[in-house]
Amino acid sequence: MATDKTPGPSLSGGAAGPHGGQSAVDTDVGSQQVTESSAGSREKPPVNAQVRPGRFREFWSYFVENRGAVVGLVVFVTFVLIALFADILAPHSPTEQYRSALLQPPAWQDGGTRQFLLGTDAVGRDLLSRLIHGARYSFFIGVIVVVIAASSGVMIGLIAGFARGWVDTLIMRLMDILLAFPSLLLALVMVAILGPSLINAMIAIAIVLQPHYVRLTRAAVLQELPRDYVTSARVVGAGPLRLMFVTVLPNCLAPIIVQAALSFSTAILDAAALGFLGLGAQPPTPEWGTMLADSREFVLRAWWVVTFPGIAILVNVLAINLMGDGLRDALDPKLKRS
Amino acid sequence: MPLLDVRNLSVDFKTSNGQFRAVDRVDVQVDVGDVLAIVGESGSGKSVSMLAVMGLLPWTASITADSMRFDGLDLATAEPRQRRAIIGKDVAMIFQEPMSSLNPCFTVGFQLREALKAHLPLSRRERQRRAVELLEQVGLPEPERRLNAFPHQLSGGMCQRVMIAMAIACKPKLLIADEPTTALDVTIQAQILELLLELQKNTGMALVLITHDMGVVAETARRVSVQYAGQKVEEQEVQALFANPHHPYTSALLAALPERATTRRLPSIPGVVPGQFDRPAGCLFSPRCAFADDRCRQVNPAMAAAELGHARCHYPLIQGIPQREVS
Amino acid sequence: MLSFMLRRLGTFIPTFIGVSIVSFLFIRLLPGDPILLMAGERGMSDERYAQLMTQFGFDKPLLTQYWDYITGILRGDLGISFKTKRPVWDEFFALFPATLELSLCAIVFAVLLGIPSGIIAAVNRGKWPDQMLMSTALVGYSMPIFWWALLLIILFSGLLGWTPVSGRISLMYFFPTESGFMLIDSLRSGQSGAFASAVQHLILPTIVLGTIPLAVIARQTRSAMLEVLSEDYVRTARAKGLSPLRVNGLHALRNALIPVITVIGLSVGTLMAGAILTETIFSWPGIGKWMVEGIGSRDYTAVQGGLLMIAVIVMVVNLVVDVLYGLINPKIRR
Question: Cβ of B16 and A61 within 8 Å?
Answer without folding.
Answer: yes
